[in-house]
Amino acid sequence: MRPLVAVDWGTSSLRVARVGSDGTVLEERTSDRGILSVPAGSFPETLRETCGDWLNQPDVLCLVSGMAGSRQGWQEAPYCTCPAGFADVAHALAWIEPGRIALVPGLCFEFLDTPDALRGEEVQVFGAMDLLHLDDGVFVLPGTHCKWVRVAEARVQSFATFMSGEFYSLLRQQSILARTMPDEDGPLEEAAFLRGVHHAQQARSLLHSAFSARTLALFDILPTQALPSYLSGLVIGEELRARALHGLEVVLIGAPALTERYALALHTLGCASHRLGSEATWRGHWALARTLQKA
Amino acid sequence: MRPLVAVDWGTSSLRVARVGSDGTVLEERTSDRGILSVPAGSFPETLRETCGDWLNQPDVLCLVSGMAGSRQGWQEAPYCTCPAGFADVAHALAWIEPGRIALVPGLCFEFLDTPDALRGEEVQVFGAMDLLHLDDGVFVLPGTHCKWVRVAEARVQSFATFMSGEFYSLLRQQSILARTMPDEDGPLEEAAFLRGVHHAQQARSLLHSAFSARTLALFDILPTQALPSYLSGLVIGEELRARALHGLEVVLIGAPALTERYALALHTLGCASHRLGSEATWRGHWALARTLQKA
Fold it and tell me: Which residue of B has its CA nearest to A79?
């Protein structure tokens, strides 16, 4: 395998890794130079400043995933249509320097005449598939916009975006619910969190259930410091209700503090889960590079 | 009937009416002195400044509904528990000046160990029941926190709060969806609105469906100026999905611009509706006064 520089270039951060031929991460660097902070035309220079030494290696391959491939990024890498597996995405790479630096395209999927899209998460799912030797499964990537990805026959068949992290922040900080909440979230209060998860299974919409985060305080049933945990349970619980899991096993990929909450919510609903962190990202770049070199 | 001064004292506005013995509204005044702008202890004075001339009538009765009866208001009027009809609420009035000035209590209702509450809307529902000669029905009061109220045997049996107006504002103005939307809402685009209503019937959660307000613009399927109407349709449509109406007829009470949207959404889903405005509020005060004087 050629030396690989893996780049995960998101909206607010830039992370790079030098990956060995067996997939081992040799070195990792992180900066706050997300695409929103990079002026148009300055992407090559920013990448050089971050890992120019690595890019100087002979025969290097550099794969860039994430929002750098969006209209607001380095260059638009058109979405790859589902179903999409390793070979489909490798084939659809948008080359910046032919054979040397490429943008990984995101995926798009249409359901009920309505498109959905992701960028960057496809690499994490590929990494998780490779690490766990899975050709089928449900992969969940919690965050501002949580992605639920269904894989079958080693290809992403479909996915759905849930704006859960963003809804939580808006309700927590900007809505009437904020008035009865403490300034800081504090540590997770598990009982209140699980109460929220269970309540969401009975409620038919967060539009309604969210109001209970106010009335439970108004009627002195929950202490105010438990409300952020309760609201978090309502939001994550609503997501799980909408997905109708029924005992399915899912793979969670993301920051430990978040995947822990999802694992807790899944467990209380009788679903098993497996948790992965950033190792999935770099493994996904490596698996794509391997596919590319086999082709 | 004694002369009636009806007061609708909400969070951000104070509205008063002088109501004739047959229920006719003789005179109406509106001010911006909602409870949030009134210092503790200044409620009697504020009311006198607004309609002291009316209160000087001999044998006058003054009924105050809305947030003035909350903990943050004039004085807390404890919630009346559902089921609650005219007589239950008349019996539970919190008298400020015995026999002369009273606060109308709100209602509370518990479902799945979770309380819900309203203040002020009970009077509007009573007014609508009286105006339309209804002892049974579903009453919907759209707004920041939309209330769905079920009446049977002339008593409110249950209700549910949907934070629809607030969710719409937060998503419209503070979320990622705002980035692809015009600064101003503009007039309602009916086709986009109805598309949102119908999409919401298929989607299982607004957490997911809301993201389509972004992707439909991203993929150039909807023009950006249609997005606020589409999002409004998604939110109202989600509410109707959660209520599972199946051809029911509902009574809409509220500002014409809002009840019109609900009527449109209900119609496209095969439900009839009847619309009322502020006349329901004053009629509700009058019907309560009548109940009180009969007792």
Answer: B219
Q: Which of A287, A245, A31, A28 is nearest to A148 (CA)?
A: A245
pLDDT of residue B244: 82
DSSP B235-267: HHHHHHHHHT-TT--EEEES-HHHHHHHHHHHH
**pLDDT per residue as tens digits for the range B61-76:** 999 999 999 999 999 9
User: What average pLDDT does chain A have?
Assistant: 96
As to burial, measured by CB atoms within 10 angstroms (0-12 exposed, 13-18 middle, 19+ buried), residue A153 is exposed
Nearest CA in chain A to B144: A176
The Cα-based distances of B227 to A243, A259, B166, B179 in angstroms read: 26, 32, 17, 11
Taking CB atoms and an 8 Å cutoff, what residues of chain B touch A73?
none
Q: How remote is the C-alpha of B152 from its chain's centroid?
A: 19
Confidence band of B246 (pLDDT split at 50, 70, 90):
confident
Residue with tokens 């809804």: A167
Q: What is the per-residue pLDDT for B21?
A: 93
Question: Which pLDDT value is given to residue B294?
Answer: 83
On whether the CB atoms of residues B38 and B52 are closer than 8 A, the answer is: no
Averaged over A87-94, what is the pLDDT?
A: 97
d(C-alpha A182, C-alpha A212), whole Å: 16
The predicted-structure confidence for A55-66, as pLDDT tens digits, reads as follows 999 999 999 999
- Taking one residue from A and the other from B, the number of pairs with CB-CB distance under 8 angstroms is 123
DSSP A169-201: HHHHHHSGGGGGS-SS--S--HHHHHHHHHHHH
Can you list the domains of chain A with their CATH numbers?
A: 4-133+279-294 (3.30.420.300), 164-276 (3.30.420.310)
Contact B154/A at CB under 8 A: no
The string of DSSP letters for B3-42 reads -EEEEEE-SS-EEEEEE-TTS-EEEEEEES--GGGS-TT-
Q: Is B211's CB within 8 Å of A164's CB?
A: no
Whether B238 sits inside 8 A of A163 (CB atoms) is no
Does the distance separating the beta carbons of B219 and A108 come in below 8 Å?
A: yes
A162 touches B: beta carbon within 8 Å: yes
ipTM: 0.95
d(CA A232, CA A230): 5
Quote the pLDDT of residue B248. 84
